[in-house]
Amino acid sequence: PQGSEEAKAFVNAFLKRSMPKKKDEAIQDILTRKAVVLEHYSKRKTKQKRKKPKGFTAKQRREMRLFEIEPEQQRYAIFLPLHELWKQYIRDLCHGLKPDAQPHMVQGKLLKADLHGAIVTVTKSKCPSYVGITGIILQEFKHVFKIITKEDKLKVVPKHNNVFSLEIDGFISYIYGSKFQLRASERSAKKFKLKGSIDL
């Protein structure tokens, strides 16, 4: 059994807990000759902001050598299955590459397609030593292609001042590298304009 003072203290504490937004005088006024329905106020939970995971910086990627291909992996035969997958991907993208397909439609699809696995040839260049390089694209960066040749040599070919040819199922497409200096992810959203003639 509690004494009167303890009971009074308990009631006061209970009222303050039940009606935290009201002052003592207001509570007393409500209780005077009035019926009161006590409400329960739950504490509002503060939402914690989710931290977005930060990716690696370019410097960290270089230090970790994420994009480097080990010398023992630099063999043309290893990447032939990748080329076969790429051909199937392009056929699906262009709805089969049928003979009656419109060239500008196929060209538009190829310009936005992922080129990892494609076999390309440097047909024109301001630097003669690049002309004739043929191989499978292993990596595409904003300004360069990394190509593995049939001689198992990894070549880094700049896009600038080079023209590349790409052939699939008899359809030959030409890529002007100077107008192609975009990352693959950016290229998929870009609208390319048709131009009559383009200089190196």
Automatic annotation (TrEMBL):
Keyword annotations from UniProtKB, A to Z? Nucleus, Phosphoprotein, tRNA processing
**SMART domains this protein is in?**
POP4
Tell me which GO cellular component terms the UniProt record holds.
Answer: nucleolus; ribonuclease MRP complex; ribonuclease P complex
**What interactions and quaternary structure are annotated?**
Component of nuclear RNase P and RNase MRP ribonucleoproteins. RNase P consists of a catalytic RNA moiety and 10 different protein chains; POP1, POP4, POP5, POP7, RPP14, RPP21, RPP25, RPP30, RPP38 and RPP40. Within the RNase P complex, POP1, POP7 and RPP25 form the 'finger' subcomplex, POP5, RPP14, RPP40 and homodimeric RPP30 form the 'palm' subcomplex, and RPP21, POP4 and RPP38 form the 'wrist' subcomplex. All subunits of the RNase P complex interact with the catalytic RNA. Several subunits of RNase P are also part of the RNase MRP complex.
- Supply one GO BP term: rRNA processing
* UniProt superkingdom: Eukaryota
By what name is this protein known?
Ribonuclease P protein subunit p29
Native organism: Smutsornis africanus
A molecular function GO annotation: ribonuclease P RNA binding
Q: Report the subcellular localization.
A: Nucleus, Nucleolus
**Gene3D superfamilies the UniProt entry points to:** Ribonuclease P/MRP, subunit p29
The record's family statement is: Belongs to the eukaryotic/archaeal RNase P protein component 1 family.
